[in-house]
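Let's practice the habit of predicting before peeking. Look at the sequence and jot down your guess about where helices and strands might fall. Then scroll down.
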Amino acid sequence: MREYRVMPNKHFDFKCFHISGLRFDTRTKDYKIIVIHCSSYKQSSYQASLYTLSSNCWREVDCTLPTSIKIYYEYQPDSFVQGAFHWLAVDDKSDYVIVAYDMVDENFRIIRFGRPNIEAEPCYNKGYVNKYRESLALIFCTSEGGLLLHLLQLWVMEDYGNERSWTKHLTVGFGPLLKVENLFRFWKDDELILYDKNEGIVLYDLQTKEIKPVAGMIGGVNYLYVTVYEESIASLRRDEENHQEGVHSIDMIHDPRLITIHDK
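Done guessing? Here is the structure:
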């Protein structure tokens, strides 16, 4: 729709940490942005701020999490499942947990997982929270040397909210043709978006093992972020506003630095 809104200024105390998510609330027909921030890596007290388009302002929301919970501060895909955002965290027992924020009810909750049963003894283990089809999922990757990932486990929460329903869906070993440095999210049912050391961005089918390079990728893995967006025709304007008050139009110019993978 080529509309944009200049949001009100907001100071966030995130000298070293913040995560965020943007979604359209279909129940209230409102855009919402949640930002969780923390001023120190060692700090276990988080603050959260919520922006709503209808009010056009920020407000603080209760972010009372157990002090033992440490949210991973590195880049995480904004896994949106069942009306809530999910971020990977760890507790004081080094067990994986998921911090969830419900964008409709506007509250936080903790979903526990425990320790994964990894088939190989890794020297490097990395977890990702993700959306697999319409379910909440956790991906665990291991490496036997360096930073290249070689083994992947996919766990799926079959019954959302039921911590006993975690089920190991599959285990995949990356073959010699792939030199995986990072993975991002699922594109289609079984296609995972990966970063290969030689090919750059690729689509990897976990079932068929088919590799599809994505042409035009530029930049290194440390500067690369991938998101999957849902198109919407919901206007940024509120009903009482006219075109000149707060909402503006912009001419869209294709930027060759941005890559869009279209569903065919």
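How did you do? Residues 34 and 50 are 5 Å apart (CA to CA).
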